[in-house]
Amino acid sequence: MFRKLRIAILLYILAFAAVGNYLAAARSTDWNNTLWIDVYPINADGSERTQAYIDGLDEADFASIENYFAREARRYGVLLETPFRLKLAGQVEEPVPVLPSTAGLLDTAIWSLKMRWYGVKVKRASDRPSPDIQLFALYHDDSDVQVLDRSTALERGLIAVAKVFAGRASAGSNQVVMAHELLHTLGATDKYAIGTNLPLYPHGFADPTAEPRYPQHKAELMAGRIPLDVQTAATPRDLGQTVVGPITATEIGWLPVK
């Protein structure tokens, strides 16, 4: 009985928080004003090499994301000159809550609440103006790890967690991951197949009308990979190899819902 009551209370709190975040995200996607994103670097593996990379970061490292979204937004008729503005915030020492790979509905709900509380604590500890979106960048030594666990975001929760590499050679692909997760916070959905990670046709293709269909030359941002043939896809090296497709543009308010 107590367990059922605890679950009911948890779901009520989650629903209350989710509604608040949903309304905030809805206001964020009217595109009347620039969205301000604070990027919080985190040394995810504790290595000196990763820390040295973080210490060398500046806001210019995120300018490509701003420019990319400005360019893509203009393609869809958005008049706002700078849809996203990324600012480098202070490094965060406390690890982010972990979402288990086998998480069920309850585990995901608990993680969502923990992540929201984590974001609140980080804001309270900062003397910066409150951002529209919080982006936690978990940096890993690229000489030690070849593949990272999947990044996560609270859909319409205005909090993103990007797992990225601490290396200049990975800067472009890091930006792809960050941009992908940022759009999740505004309601964009994944456009790849769970299990294979292959882009879904047609919405996960940058150019679904191309003849021949393969190989594609760019990735749809929310599909995350460039389809080369029916069974193969490549990771884009930077945002220049990606586009925001029309379905994604509709989900985030760049196009009207038909």
Which keywords apply here?
258 residues, alpha/beta, Collagenase (Catalytic Domain), 2 domains, five-stranded mixed beta sheet, two-stranded parallel sheet, globular
Short synopsis of the structure:
It is built from six helices and nine strands. With 258 residues, the protein is an alpha/beta fold.
Q: Given the C-alpha coordinates, what overall shape results?
A: globular
Low-confidence stretches: none
The fold-level CATH name of the largest domain is: Collagenase (Catalytic Domain)
CATH class of the largest domain: Alpha Beta
**DSSP strand tally:** 9
Give the topology string: H per helix, E per strand: HEHHEHEEEHEEEEH
Please outline the major beta sheet: 5 strands, mixed
Looking at how many chains there are and whether they match, the oligomeric state comes to single chain
Overall pLDDT metric: 89
Give the N-terminus to C-terminus distance in angstroms: 46 Å
Description:
This protein is an alpha/beta fold. The protein contains 6 helices and 9 strands, in the order αβααβαβββαββββα. The chain has helices at 2-28, 48-55, 63-75, 105-124, 171-184, 246-251; strands spanning 35-43, 84-88, 133-141, 152-154, 159-166, 219-220, 226-229, 232-234, 242-243. It has a 5-stranded mixed sheet with strand order 2-1-3-5-4, sandwiched between helices. The chain has a two-stranded parallel ribbon with strand order 6-9. The chain has a two-stranded antiparallel sheet with strand order 7-8. Helix 1 packs across helix 4. It is globular and about 50 Å long.
How does the SSE layout of this entry go?
Elements: H1 2-28, E1 35-43, H2 48-55, H3 63-75, E2 84-88, H4 105-124, E3 133-141, E4 152-154, E5 159-166, H5 171-184, E6 219-220, E7 226-229, E8 232-234, E9 242-243, H6 246-251
Helix pairs in contact: 1-4
